[in-house]
Design a protein that fits this description.
With about 325 residues, the protein is mainly alpha-helical. It is about 60% helix and about 0% strand. The chain is flat. About 45% of the residues are buried.
């Protein structure tokens, strides 16, 4: 018995029967020889961490565009917080931590520069439409590794594309990430908004705070505990209706007072215009695309290639490309 087989045996002995067992995975699109040392879900996690798209998350907006303070969240830190919450829930319930972590780490790989403003811009201007969860799947299937993709397992791919929207993941681990994503962004966005003085502690809805907790850690602990309690009774991923309603009320509050706040979001219009202008340029001038995206244009469509290229940019790179293409350079005598 090699290391991987021993790990798979440990899963069989310790995880719940309804958990996703690595040894019973539905497999990859392209069959591969199994690792001697890692389960298939461990390999998927590692492939995501080592991908270029994952590294770009550090320079992509979460809520505040290019914040100057050191402690504001980015898409990368959001992803790590989702992974931490997901693993805590999976471990507590006897589900597969490695699968849950892989889904969490990959769930936002397809996010645009400038956060949801960039996503909205591409969805409005690209005739193919755009949704970041679908783009995340495209990143891992086609765009990474010079077009060959990461060739992840079915369970990870399904969890990533189903982490948002109405479609539920096939696995319990994927459904954990759907909830962990909300738990993370609602609470860490409150923390960032308080730090930015967009909100004051007294602004938060008191009824929700009484139900969920006064602090970030208390609220996360309450919501994680609610998921565990619900599963132990119902054998399903979810929360008590009263607790989930309180979480959604807090989410609605954030949309009204932070996500749509002109002070917090004053620069997003500029980011949205940059994304739109870059997309239009590359759709009209495909010769300006990098070679790998030229191949996509020839194989699929110019629109697809322009969308893939712009969506993959970090905030900083999008600004640099915009500056290079549209801002005049100072003249100097040669």
């Amino acid at each position: 018995m090699n290391v991987r087989e021993r790990l798979e045996e440990i899963e069989r002995q310790t995880l719940l029967p309804q958990a996703s067992h690595a040894g019973l995975s539905k497999g990859r699109v392209r069959p591969e020889e199994k690792s001697e040392y890692r389960t298939c879900f461990m390999r998927d996690r590692d492939r995501i961490i080592h991908s270029k798209a994952f590294r770009r998350l550090k320079d992509k907006t979460q809520v505040f565009l290019s914040p100057e303070g050191d402690h504001y969240r980015t898409r990368m830190t959001h992803t790590m917080e989702v992974a931490q919450i997901s693993r805590t829930v999976a471990r507590g319930l006897g589900l597969n931590e490695d699968l849950t972590e892989a889904i969490a780490l990959g769930h936002d790989l397809g996010h645009t520069p400038f956060g949801h403003a960039g996503e909205k811009a591409l969805n409005e201007i690209c005739p193919l439409g755009f949704a970041h969860n679908e783009q995340s799947l495209r990143v891992i299937d086609f765009l990474e590794k010079n077009g060959s993709g990461l060739n992840l397992t079915y369970e990870v791919r399904n969890g990533i594309v189903c982490h948002s929207g109405a479609q539920k993941a096939d696995t319990l681990e994927g459904r954990i990430v759907h909830y962990a994503d909300r738990i993370a962004y609602i609470n860490h966005d409150i923390d960032d908004a308080l730090r930015a003085e967009i909100l004051r502690p007294g602004d938060l809805p008191t009824g929700v705070l009484r139900r969920l907790g006064e602090t970030t850690s208390a609220r996360i602990d309450c919501l994680v505990g609610a998921m565990m309690t619900y599963f132990l009774r119902e054998q399903k991923i979810g929360m008590e209706e009263e607790t989930e309603e309180a979480m959604l009320e807090l989410r609605d509050f954030m949309f009204e007072y932070v996500y749509k706040n002109p002070v917090a979001k004053g620069e997003e219009g500029k980011g949205k215009r940059i994304v739109s202008i870059l997309y239009e340029h590359f759709a009209e001038e495909p010769d300006d695309l990098p070679p790998e995206y030229m191949q996509i244009a020839m194989r699929e469509s110019v629109e697809r290639a322009a969308c893939d290229y712009v969506a993959g940019m970090s905030d900083r790179f999008a600004v640099a490309v915009f500056h290079e293409l549209f801002i005049p350079k100072s003249w100097s005598k040669v």
